[in-house]
Design goal:
about 375 residues, alpha/beta, Aspartate Aminotransferase, domain 1, Aspartate Aminotransferase, domain 2, 2 domains, 7-stranded mixed β-sheet, 4-stranded mixed β-sheet, 11 helices, binds pyridoxal-5'-phosphate, PyrdxlP-dep_Trfase_small, transaminase activity
Length: about 375
């Protein structure tokens, strides 16, 4: 049997990982500023995370959600503490798409309405409703097409206000990434998020903060949406939550009440996933990783801003993007091939940095030296 060919792949086989580094099958060491697509939050194979999972594995890995699982309650308590949203309620699932799918469904159950507002360049996942709210026709199969989702321009306050004035009473939810990831690292403005809050309040709609990529401390705050100083009704989470162990979830504000059987899952919140997620929160707190994301992120953005060929540096904390001019569009590839540094990308020429939140200053310095060297090599080649 062959694999179904869904992506073009880098020709690298990673066999070992530690902290912000990975090694390939030939023993080459790479600096990982991609974090396996923003998933590695506390660092690869963190010893506390490994120990927590191993200890849990010796006891029990899985049982169905038909029994009490105190680990879920412990995780909810810890998450409430670290996120500052202790009065929200947690529903656990397995991925980002599933988290958004459940968030949108919950908003529709709660309001009894069908319409969803999403934004240009949004990515919310690949399941049916999540993909319908994703602004990329290539991902949407005919069966996912719906006229229940309206796309509005990102950060356009007037367009949003006009849309609500016309359709407010039909809108179940507004879903927005605090910082768009796949769309190319675009930060939602604070006033835009505040307007979403006030329009949702006025018209009885649900504000869903997609924090799958920009959440879990990556921006320097637990949720990047929190920079706006207003709360969402539902936050969706996944990537950084398990540091690579598959787990996702939504936290739901207390005014949205649960009704039995509206949500459910077989694997979500299993014992092993909860152990991994607890380890992540413990390490984030113990090692003050949100503070590190602020500091190391600022260093990277300041240094990148000082390089003339690097354009439009943006983002928050350790979620950073910048544009690369067409003449040096091979920069990302050269960083990987020549400098052994993994970075992320967005179309057309955006480099995305999504490293572990424990990235050290010396690793950030290594990247800055490497990018300068590669840019210089383009200049020499052009002479
Ligand atoms: C903002 C955002 N939402 C949702 C998803 C979907 O997450 P998953 O791939 O875990 O389903 C992603 C994945 O990249 C994402 O970046």
């Amino acid at each position: 049997m062959n694999l179904f060919d869904v992506y073009p792949l880098n020709d690298v086989t990673i066999t070992k990982a530690k902290g912000s580094y990975v090694w390939d099958s030939e023993g080459n060491q790479y600096l990982d500023l991609y974090g396996g697509h923003a998933v590695i939050s506390i660092g690869h194979t963190h010893p506390h995370w490994v120990r927590r999972i191993e200890e849990q594995l010796e006891k029990i890995a899985f049982y169905s959600n038909s029994i009490q699982n105190p680990l879920q309650g412990e995780l909810a308590k810890k998450l409430g503490e670290v996120s500052g949203k202790g009065d929200y309620n947690l529903f656990l699932c397995n991925s980002g798409a599933e988290a958004n799918e459940n968030a949108l469904k919950m908003a529709s159950f709660h309001t009894g309405r069908k319409k969803i507002v999403a934004f240009s360049k949004a990515f919310h996942g690949r399941t049916s409703l999540a993909v319908a709210a994703t602004d990329n026709k290539n991902y949407v199969a005919p069966v996912n097409e719906t006229n229940n989702v309206d796309f509005l321009p990102f950060n356009d306050e007037e367009a949003l206000a006009v849309h609500f004035a016309k359709h407010g009473k039909e809108i179940a939810a507004v879903i927005i990434e605090g910082i768009q990831g796949v769309g190319g690292i675009n930060v939602a403005s604070e006033s835009f998020l505040q307007l979403i809050r006030s329009l949702c309040d006025k018209y009885g709609a649900v504000y869903i903060a997609d924090a799958v990529q920009c959440g879990y401390g990556r921006s320097g705050k637990f949720f990047s949406h929190d920079f706006a100083g207003v709360n969402a009704d539902i936050y969706s989470m996944a990537k950084g939550m398990g540091n690579g162990f598959p787990i996702g979830g939504i936290i739901i504000a207390p005014h949205i009440k649960p009704k039995h059987f509206q949500l459910g899952t077989t694997f979500g919140g299993n014992h092993l996933a909860c152990a991994a997620a607890m380890a992540v929160l413990e390490v984030m707190k113990e090692e003050k990783l949100m503070g590190n994301a602020v500091m190391t992120g600022k260093y990277l953005r300041d240094e990148l801003n000082a390089i003339p060929e690097v354009q439009n540096v943006r983002g928050r904390g350790l979620m950073i993007g910048f544009d690369v001019p067409q003449e040096i569009a091979a920069l990302k590839k050269n960083l990987l091939t020549n400098q052994k540094i993994f970075t992320g990308e967005a179309k057309p020429n955006v480099i995305r940095l999504l490293p572990s939140l424990a990235l050290k200053k010396k690793d950030a310095e290594q990247f800055i030296d490497a990018i300068k060297e590669e840019i210089e090599a383009f200049a020499v080649a052009a002479e």
